[in-house]
């Protein structure tokens, strides 16, 4: 799959902004309700044949109610909370060879909305 080409096309479809980091990674700034937006990174891991869709929520600190995030994990289809490099993130991972464009669109939207919801809940701001 040409993930960056898909990300660019989808960014145009949703009137978002697209930036390519390198051959395996790009970002879409996804427009959301209330004039908010969320940066969503798409990355393909060729070695493991996985597509990762992720978005930062905030810095992972001790005052976050992590039990609430685990409850939210159970409710979501694609996005799951993770901690990577001291950031709380929402991430979706799927096999590249069986992931359809429609599934990727759903994953991008869910990851963006979930990350933005908890970013607002935790920080009260629109940071990422």
Can you list the strand order of the major beta sheet? 1-2-3-4-6-5
State the helix count.
Answer: 3
Q: Separation of termini?
A: 27 Å
**Largest sheet, strands/sense/barrel:** 6 strands, antiparallel
User: What is the H/E string?
Assistant: HEEEEHEEH
DSSP E strands, number: 6
Structural class: alpha+beta
Q: Estimate the helix proportion, in percent.
A: 25-40%
Mean pLDDT level: 94
Amount of beta strand: 35-45%
Radius of gyration: 14 Å
Q: Could you say which overall geometry the principal axes of the C-alpha atoms support?
A: globular
Note the quaternary state here. Answer: single chain
Low-confidence stretches: none
Organism: Reichenbachiella carrageenanivorans
Protein name: YbjN domain-containing protein
Give a quick set of tags describing it.
6-stranded antiparallel β-sheet, single chain, 34% helix, 128 residues, alpha+beta
């Amino acid at each position: 799959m040409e993930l960056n080409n898909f990300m660019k096309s989808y960014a145009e479809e949703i009137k978002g902004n697209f930036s390519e980091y390198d051959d395996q990674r790009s970002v879409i700034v996804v427009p959301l309700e209330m004039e908010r937006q969320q940066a969503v990174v798409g990355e393909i891991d060729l070695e493991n044949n996985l597509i990762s869709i992720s978005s930062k929520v905030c810095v992972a600190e001790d005052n976050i109610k992590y039990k609430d995030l685990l409850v939210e994990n159970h409710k979501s289809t694609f996005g799951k909370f993770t901690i990577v490099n001291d950031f709380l993130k929402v991430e979706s991972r799927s096999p590249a060879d069986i992931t359809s464009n429609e599934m990727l669109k759903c994953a991008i939207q869910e990851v963006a909305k979930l990350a933005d919801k908890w970013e607002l809940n935790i920080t009260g701001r629109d940071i990422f």
